[in-house]
Amino acid sequence: MGRGKIEIRRIDNSTSRQVTFSKRRNGLLKKAKELAILCDAEVGVIVFSSTGKLYDLASSRSVNSHSSPTPYSMSLLFSTSAPQI
């Protein structure tokens, strides 16, 4: 028996939205870590909360994942050559 499907839309209740964000963020970061370990892949994840707080993960030991992004690094991340989602 599988889980029921939910409608993907914005959660109106701010408390429920924050709880859901926290749980899903943790799940996303866990899956990214697992992918890096299982597949020996370089994985990077950047998530901004609705309040603007940054959460990140980088699988490479050469990357300092606790430094704040600079305007230059963010412009590289969101440059026009990157695929748009």
Automatic annotation (TrEMBL):
Q: Which cellular components does GO assign to this protein?
A: nucleus
Q: Which UniProt keywords apply?
A: DNA-binding, Nucleus, Transcription, Transcription regulation
Q: Name one GO biological process term.
A: positive regulation of transcription by RNA polymerase II
Concerning PROSITE patterns, the annotation shows: MADS_BOX_1, MADS_BOX_2
Which SMART domains does the record match to this protein?
A: MADS
Q: What is its main location?
A: nucleus
| MADS-box domain residues | 1-61
Q: Where does it localize?
A: Nucleus
Recorded GO molecular functions are: protein dimerization activity; RNA polymerase II transcription regulatory region sequence-specific DNA binding
| Entries under Gene3D superfamilies matching the protein | Transcription factor, MADS-box
Cross-referenced PANTHER family: SERUM RESPONSE FACTOR HOMOLOG
Q: What is this protein called?
A: MADS-box domain-containing protein
